[in-house]
Design brief:
Helix content: 55-70%
Strand content: 5-15%
Oligomer: single chain
Distance between the termini: 38 Å
Mean pLDDT: 84
Shape: elongated
Number of strands: 2
Order of helices and strands: EEHHHH
């Protein structure tokens, strides 16, 4: 995913650090953190959708091979398969998609953890700005 470079906020692994020296920098860092939070929420939603699709793909039942429809449109045999093989010969190969649900779940967990740390940093900076007023 695309991640915006920030001036005050640094994310390494699941660790989020913010370095500010003044109230003005604190307000700018707060804006950066809120932007990062929006990015992470977007990533989290995307990963959730991918996880749901991967689990559906994994739990899909195979079609019964005895139907006439299956015999005609079978991807390995049948008259349509020949046409598809010829068409694929002239097409550039696509990268394989459909990562395993466990990998997506790990990435989703990591994103949730980073989001939690970003929320923690936001609360700390807001508290510090309120105390300094």
């Amino acid at each position: 995913m695309f991640e915006t470079p920030f001036k005050f906020v640094k994310v390494e692994g699941t660790e989020v650090t913010v370095h500010v020296t003044s109230a003005a920098e604190g307000r700018a860092a707060l804006k950066e953190l809120k932007h990062k939070k929006r990015e992470l929420n977007h990533t989290k939603r995307t990963l959730g959708r991918e996880l749901e699709a991967a689990r559906k793909r994994q739990n899909r039942k195979p079609r019964p091979p005895d139907s006439l429809w299956f015999k005609i449109f079978d991807a390995e045999k049948g008259p349509v398969a020949f046409v598809l093989r010829v068409a694929r010969a002239f097409r550039t190969p696509k990268p394989k998609t459909g990562a395993d649900p466990e990998a997506i779940a790990r990435e989703l967990k990591k994103t949730s953890e980073i989001l939690h740390h970003v929320d923690s940093c936001i609360l700390q900076i807001e508290g510090k700005l309120l105390v300094d007023k």
